[in-house]
Design goal:
Elements lengths: L8 H4 L8 E13 L3 E7 L7 E6 H4 L1 H6 L5 E10 L7 E12 L15 H6 L8 H23 L3 E2 L5 E2 L11 E2 L26 E3 L4 H11 L1 E9 L12 E10 L3 H22 L1 H10 L4 H10 L3 E4 H10 L16 H11 L4 E7 L15 E9 L3 E8 L4 H10 L8 H8 L5 E7 H9 L20
Parallel strand pairs: 3-5, 6-10, 12-13
Antiparallel strand pairs: 1-2, 1-4, 2-3, 4-5, 7-9, 8-9, 10-11, 11-16, 13-14, 14-15, 15-16
The protein binds one RNA strand through strand 1, strand 2, helix 4, strand 15 and strand 16.
RNA sequence: UCCUCAUUAGCUCAGUUGGUUAGAGCACCUGACUGUUAAUCAGGGGGUCCUAGGUUCAAGUCCUAGAUGAGGAGCCA
């Protein structure tokens, strides 16, 4: 028998092998009992549920059992039996217990009672051992897996786009610099500016804010691709919806117009939500009970309802007619603020909304210009509670049009020569979008703060662990 | 970055109009209990009231500045 030999608690609880000897390993959640018998709730992270270990005090001794308290890690060999208690189908009558690691009860920070999410963030090294956080992590895994499954089943190829980039032309926010220069004494040019020709790459380099531009290069060869990787924004954003380091999914598809793009986005989101409802039932029920009483109802609703689709122009008309005093004025050409988006999703339509055809001035250079010359084929998917969960567009594939737009916005053309060349050689209509993975998880788990759906959040002034 | 609020025991939080020795629940320790279910019951230990100034006979409480956290806004995914 090797060290890894054990039955996972999720399998023990399926009640398959009653009467047989089993080995369970895990971390003690609580211990209670009397002078004759101790009950140990054991969890190994395979499920939200614990297995109850029953240990006779006469066999194991009071002093030993005292060490098997909250937080300790143990190996238990015993018989799986039907439980006389009402709250669990089976339990393990312990024959032997090996203490892998004790946890001093006076200093172990996790109690059997609940903690605030703020406190748990301060002990991110231990919070995976809580019910809430282990549930979130299992759902996070399930969603990552479902994303790959969805695209793989549809014949999309997973493209690894670079994390270090030499271009900052995408315009999606402030970038983190990557350098090997001595920041206390960098080489300088005659004009006093830092000489990045002497840096590792011979030029300035940054952490990527998006894999989209490279994804487009791949789509214009492999037709259907997606990226799924970390992205970095050095914005000083302090909100429950922003991270400095987050994961993004970016499908990019040749021969898709904006309608196809919207169909893909809606189908994709519904698939993921249905996958969670089907595969993460116990964890979602726990989160529903613990944090968000409307979670399951909301997930079921969004999974089946048809998203509302309308143009930016129509949305502005609705907002202008609305009997609401806006903090930010609404007029054609103004960017929509979260109060406007929330009104459309939560009050007016009461379901997810896809807004399209925004004024070109408030959108990025790569979006395809409409025939009206004023709007671009952009699409934002707005969700209840979250706001913008997806942003995407049909891309400008016309060489003349995209160089004109780049010049208008005074984006340095020489940094994008490779991107522009795809429009020169065998260009094709294509579309894509970006989905923030943690924003998806906020919606699926019902958690209120994005720092609680990623194991180790990076935010301004916070890079512990 | 801006606005608002918060910071008191390991955790969650009370603390009245500025007034004696700062409290509770949980956790922890000791004991009781023949199968518990966030076990229960009894007892015990535990405090730089975020920090630095200030006002006052007297400050956890009022004022100023700062630190940290949270919510809202902006930026966005």
């Amino acid at each position: 028998m090797t060290l890894k030999s054990r039955t996972k608690i999720v399998d023990l609880l399926k009640k398959g092998e009653v009467g047989t000897e089993v080995v369970a390993k895990g971390w003690v959640r609580t211990r209670r009992g009397n002078k004759n018998v101790a009950f140990i709730a054991l969890n190994d992270g395979s499920t939200i549920h614990n297995i109850q270990i029953v240990a006779d005090v006469a066999v194991f001794g009071d002093d030993f059992l005292k060490e098997v308290g909250t937080g300790a890690c143990i190996k238990v060999v015993g018989t799986l039996v039907e439980s006389p208690g009402a709250q669990q189908p089976v339990e393990v009558q312990a024959k032997s217990i090996e203490l892998y690691g004790k946890a001093d009860p006076a200093s172990y920070p996790l109690q059997k009672k609940g903690h605030s999410l703020e406190f748990l963030r301060e002990i991110a090294h231990l919070r995976p051992r809580t019910n809430t956080f282990s549930a979130v992590l299992r759902i996070r895994h399930a969603m990552a897996f479902a994303i790959h499954k969805y695209f793989n089943d549809k014949g999309f190829f997973y493209i690894h786009t670079p994390i270090i980039t030499g271009s900052d032309a995408e315009g999606a926010g402030e970038l983190f610099r990557v350098t090997t220069l001595d920041i206390n004494n960098p080489p300088r040019k005659e004009n006093g500016k830092v000489d990045f020709a002497e840096d590792f790459f011979g030029k300035e380099s940054k952490l990527t804010v998006s894999g989209q531009l490279e994804g487009e290069l791949a789509a214009l060869a492999l037709s259907e691709v997606y990226t799924f990787g970390p992205t970095f924004r050095a914005e000083n954003s302090n909100t429950p919806r922003h991270l400095a380091e987050f994961w993004m999914i970016e499908p990019e598809v040749a021969f898709y117009d904006i309608e196809d793009n919207m169909d893909l986005a809606e189908d994709f989101l519904k698939y993921l939500i249905r996958y969670a409802l089907e595969h993460c039932k116990d964890d979602l029920e726990f989160l529903n009970k613990m944090w968000d009483k409307e979670l399951l109802e909301r997930l079921n609703s969004v999974a089946s309802i048809s998203f509302e689709r309308l143009t930016y122009t129509k949305a502005v008309e609705i907002l202008e007619k609305a009997d609401v005093k806006w903090e930010f004025p609404v007029f054609w050409g103004a960017d929509l603020h979260s109060e406007h988006e929330r009104y459309l999703v939560e009050k007016h339509f009461k379901k997810p909304v896809i807004l399209t055809d925004y004024p070109k001035e408030i959108k990025a250079f790569y979006m395809k210009l409409n025939d009206d010359g004023k709007t671009v084929k952009a699409m934002d998917v707005l969700f209840p509670k979250i706001g913008e969960i997806i942003g995407g567009s049909q891309r400008e594939e016309n060489h003349e049009a995209i160089t004109k737009r780049i010049n208008e916005l005074e984006i340095p053309m020489e940094e994008l020569w490779w991107y522009i060349e795809t429009r020169k050689f065998g260009t094709a209509p294509h579309s894509g979008f970006g989905l923030g993975f943690e924003r998806l998880l906020l919606f699926v788990t019902g958690m209120g703060n994005i720092r609680d759906v990623i194991p180790f959040p990076r935010t301004p002034n916070s890079c512990e662990f």
